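Action item from last week, closing it out:
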Amino acid sequence: MTDTMTRIAAGLEQAFAARGFAEPSVEDLRDAAGVSLRTLYKYTPSRADMVLAALEHRQARYLGHLFDGLPNAPKAALDALLDRVGNWMATETSHGCLFHGAVAAEPGSERLREVLSRHKAEVARRAAMATGLGGREIELLVIMEGLTQAWSLHQEAAVAGAKRLGHDLLGHVAA
């Protein structure tokens, strides 16, 4: 990504995260991206391209937040990973997953469903590798997704509950 495209994608991500996918006008998105309307359309020729650019930027940030510098020990990696999901919810998106939000805003879009599917598969794959839970990607994803949904109601208690479930899963795999 060029510097201009990165700046546009970052602004679009923040605008969609703050206001949803239907509400921001093109002028709002232009302002959030910090570029002219001409430049915005040069790099993202349609609203669908704007959404995809925002999601691509979000994925890179989310994966870095979750997985950069995780401990090597499986239990410590699991705890750190779930703490990081809770931190992300507290600081970035307490109302839910931006990828799910994009699909909800345009439920007929196969392209967005594919982006959602790839994103979740990548998160699950990397989480399973980091925690020694290879072959348990779905179970681990259910725990992480449950945490993102429960976080807005239960915050740290949701993180603690996710850790208990993750520890049970680790224990079950080790047995």
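Closing note: The chain has a mean pLDDT of 92.
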